[in-house]
Amino acid sequence: MTKLHLGIDLGTTNSATAIFTGEQTQVVPNKRGQANTPSIVRITGDKVMVGDRARKFLDSDAINTHREFKRLMGTGKLTAPDSSGKQWSPEQLSAEVLKALLDDVEATTGSRPSQAVITVPALFELPQSKATSEAAQLAGLDKVELLPEPVASAFSAGWSEDSVGQSWLVFDLGGGTFDASLVEARDGLLRVIGHDGDNFLGGRDIDRLLADWVVRQLESNHQIQIAIDDPAHKGLAAKLYGEAEQAKIRLSTQASTVLEIDLDLDGREIIDELPLNRQELEMLCEPVINRALEICRRLLAEHGLDEGGLDRTVLVGGPANMPVIRQRVTNELAPLAAENRDPMTLVAEGAALYAVSIGLGSDNDSATPTDTAENKFWLQYPNVCSELDPTVMGRLVSTEGSKPSTIQLTRDGWESEKVTLTEEGAFLTTVSILPSKATRFTVQCRDASGAKVSVTPQTISIVHGLTLSDPPLSRSIGVALANGYVKTFLERGTPLPARRTFSQSTVDTLMPGSDGELNIPIVQGERAKARYCRRVGNLVIRAAELKKPLHAGSRVEISLEVDRGGNMKSQASLPDQNLLIKGVAELVIPSADPQAMRATWQSLQRRISIQQQGAFRERNEDAVRKLEHQQQHLSEIGIQLTGTMECEDTRQRLYRNLLEIEAEVEELEQRGQVDELKEQCESEYLNAQYSVLQWGSEIDRRLFSELEKKVATAMERGRATELERIIEQLQRINNATYRKSPEFWSDQFQYAASRLHQATNMRRAKLLVDKGRDLLEQGKTEELRGITQSLWSLLPENMRSAEETHDSGVF
Ligand code: ADP
Ligand code: MG
Q1: Which residue in 4, 310, 317, 753 has a CA-CA distance of 20 to 30 Å to 103?
Q2: How far is CA 530 from the centre of its chain?
Q3: Model pTM greater than 0.70?
Q4: Ligand 1 centre from 113 Cα, in Å?
């Protein structure tokens, strides 16, 4: 029985599918014979239209026609009510796209798949990945694996290239998202070593720049005013964007074109023909390409590959068809891999290959020859293999009639040894496969008399290529602490599934039966400070559920677990209370509240102007330029913030932009502190070195020597956030090893005792200190531990405001 291995690129703008049936990947065409199906859905009554058919109604029936819903995945948001008052979730709409794709696969192969690999953007966070799994379920798929899109692209480009030992960059510019990913292929394993990107950069921005150009031309040619963002002109704007997009696509293959404009502006007919050549378009879209390249350079620099270390680039996505993008990427980054492949189907093909490599596939009923063979083998072999001589093992599971006694696997020009089956009907042999392609072997058996006997399966195929490691976590995940920092549980790049548990302490006291509660915010992101990471979930300890008072300083065991599908489970347990809080994590992307955004905007204005004064005073040209840029960016956002911001998509984009500016401003604010941080880093480094040498284990030493390299880079680069992170890591390793020292508890006790005046319960604290001093005098330092811990629980931590900690109640 052959398996149908299916890969689905469920794109924001376009979707595509590819199958692998045994020899190679094959892109599945839709009903119109096209490789790409627009991710657009129109629902009227019980009639559903998907793709180009639905696209036609974007203009005339906007209320029932939905697009770009992938952006809302995992937000919990529904579409605006349609003409019958119904609202749809992005998962439901994605499911409709998936169903249409499955229809096409069924039409091509004759059987409907129940399993698939679906790709998701590298920057998808957990809630969005989870929503994708839900959409798949709604579409009737009962098993799916999610794979980051760039991994899929690299996989499919890597499969046809000899790439071992190199570093590649996947440059995926889609309709509205940009992903840059660094991959390395080593030991037959394709690994993603870094991601960067922008969820709001893509071909649509080029359309917008071109549409703005068209508006300027029309305004001057016809003495009119067109407010393209005015909701009253929604239809007109859509038409303009459509024209702009088509012209852009034509200019990928033609040197020049004409935009034929035919618009109705408040009852007035505007007709025009605007000639446009490729160079003009290239100039218009330069900012988009610059931004994408900037992100790539940032990623390369982060991995020390900015000076010629990169070997290849893989171009992915519709805009990769533009000659200027191919040129600039080749010139400014690295030569292209998989140059002749279609950049718009690479992702789906990679997903299909991945399906093969993990053995995920549905039974292809129609292609199955009816089970007439009397002898059936159960065979075990790798679907994809990086060596050229894989092992094939097997056993007879049913026999009828003449029983096979020998087995041989053959292909054109080669045959395996003739192996005699054991008494149980088992065998083991090696086969020789052809490099960089699928090799199909025929299974040949003979009975004791030497006569041929028929067996199932009749053939097997093995692909030579790189295998993929487990899908990595695209963004680090952790818990926001009450001191404003993040405790990272799972680092970016961790292979999934993964699970990690840490023990933290509570910072407030909760009395049973009261209405108090304590938050454990779960955040995702790469920044050391919690406020710059996104909250993706929350565990709540409610006072009402407690059996006895929960004192500040109580231990809480928190564990986070992420499966291959991006589903996160979290739980907190309070051993002292015998209480377990489970799955309370709500994976919802927080809505970007307009009022809060306006307040942030104002405070940023202020902070930027303070920085500007300083930069002018110090004649720091670099900073002046940066601030000028931020100021400009902020004013652009300011204009949009005064609008209605009806669309969640716009709000999310502005929200992210604000967070980005805020992070940059903070970076500048901190620049003044860099020297101080460097000094601190140096002294923490020496402390840690001392502790590790004195009390560290073999593992501590290894960790420390890895950290040493990072310290050197961080000192050289002098970036505040990076230094902060390193300092924290140094402190962590220092603490961990210092804890093993004989003086630890007596030192800790002395320090806690010196803060006696801050204790919440002075009388009790005083008693503890007296008792501790006695123990110290008698030299009973091991007993000091309990005393010190009790003392800690009476002392306040140095905590930050709720805003900076996502209102965290743990430390
Ligand atoms: P997504 O990954 O977001 O689904 P795609 O990779 O399908 O997106 O890219 C869609 C974008 O590619 C659209 O903006 C579309 O205008 C653009 N595009 C498609 N074909 C071409 C082409 N031949 N030249 C330039 N841009 C193209
Ligand atoms: Mg895409």
Answers
A1: 317
A2: 19
A3: no
A4: 27
